[in-house]
Design a protein that fits this description.
Helix content is 73%, strand content 0%. By secondary structure, it is an all-alpha fold. Helix 1 runs antiparallel to helix 2 and helix 2 packs antiparallel against helix 3. The longest helix has 29 residues.
């Protein structure tokens, strides 16, 4: 399907893995009251980004791959919104 041998060689996947680590470090400092709110949402959302890139890469058709990339992109918008909410609430 691609010139890349694995989704792990995709820069976007590598950067999204770094983003997950950053989100986990950032949310570790949130109040305990947010553990099941913003912390959970932001972590799940960030994990969704590289997960969908990887799952899409392993799909059988380019159409399916694009669909998973779109889901990953949408998760990025969701995460961006949650970061704005957190910034407004805690900074």
């Amino acid at each position: 399907m691609s010139e890349f041998s694995s989704y792990k060689s995709l820069i976007v996947w590598q950067k999204s893995i770094e983003l997950v680590s950053e989100i986990y470090m950032l949310t570790a400092n949130f109040p305990k009251s947010e553990m099941y709110g913003l912390v959970s949402q932001m972590r799940r959302c960030s994990v969704s980004i590289p997960s969908n890139i990887a799952e899409g890469y392993r799909r059988l058709t380019t159409r399916q791959y694009r669909q998973f990339l779109q889901v990953s992109f949408a998760s990025g918008g969701e995460l961006e919104t949650q970061i704005i909410i957190a910034k407004n609430k805690y900074v």
